[in-house]
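Q: What would this chain look like folded?
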Amino acid sequence: MVIKIGDDKNFKQEIFQVDKITRYWGGDGALLGDGLRYPGFKVGAEVWFVVGTGGQSRTILEFRLCSPVLPPGNLFVSNQRSLTSEPEAQARDLV
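A: My prediction, written as structure tokens:
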């Protein structure tokens, strides 16, 4: 999937992948069992994510929809990102 990093004027688009070990979280902090099939994951959605290291540096391990207020103690505080391509194709590949 392609994720836009930055604001509307200064941004770059990067390609990442998800894997069967990727965990998905809703904006309310609840774990999502549907993964990328969850309706909130769509083009333009604001997301937070954590990637692996080494050979997994392009694999998203934790993927969270943003909410107006992040839950207390959130460990994923970094830059907010926007999805720029439909994630459903990757969801189909993981079935």
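The chain has a mean pLDDT of 78.
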